[in-house]
Write a structure and sequence with these properties.
Blueprint: E1 2-4, H1 7-42, H2 47-84, H3 86-89, E2 91-108, E3 111-122, E4 125-133, E5 146-152, E6 155-163
Antiparallel strand pairs: 1-6, 2-3, 2-5, 3-4, 5-6
């Protein structure tokens, strides 16, 4: 029983989203400059009408630019940077689970994930760790299983049951 996230597919999706928003920002800037230059060239005598149109279009494009730059672009950049260095710094360890339960489900931007609570014993201490699962696949982890997990920033990338708990 193995769980694995398709990193290459998600990295490609993150790059497509990021560069799509960069292109959108560049397009908005080019449109703003183009409209201003066009209105300047087309306004021979009646400046007031072109000035009003120029101000209205400029305000609309600046509001659209600010919306994209302040809301959508940071999410795309974070999503892209998450997958950028994932293979270099992923953390792998084996845990004997004493509790596996779903805490909550969240949607951030276009990424949906579940938050699972893994309780495990390390030495004489019982620890609880919140692990984020990106896919909606059901995990085959049960209480008492010895599980080898690979996480990156507490996001479950791979998980494999090494030793199953005995059903008594």
């Amino acid at each position: 029983m193995k769980y694995e996230v398709d990193i290459a597919k998600r990295k490609k999706e993150a790059n497509r989203l990021y560069y799509g928003e960069v292109a959108l920002l560049a397009g908005l800037i080019a449109l703003l400059v183009g409209v201003n230059v066009l209105l300047l060239l087309l306004s021979p005598h009646n400046y007031i009408i072109y000035l009003i149109i120029d101000i209205a279009v400029s305000v609309l494009l600046i509001v659209a630019f600010l919306f994209v730059f302040l809301n959508l672009f940071p999410l795309a950049k974070t999503y892209r940077n998450f997958y950028k260095n994932i293979n270099k710094t992923a953390y792998e360890r084996a845990r004997k689970l004493i509790y596996v339960g779903e805490k909550e489900r969240k949607d951030i931007g276009n990424v949906s994930h579940r938050v699972l609570a893994f309780r495990y014993v390390e030495g004489f201490v019982t620890l609880e760790e919140n692990v984020y699962v990106l896919d909606d696949d059901d995990l085959a982890f049960k209480e008492g299983d010895l599980v080898k997990v690979r996480t990156y920033r507490n996001v479950l990338m791979e998980g494999e049951v090494i030793d199953q708990a005995s059903d008594e």
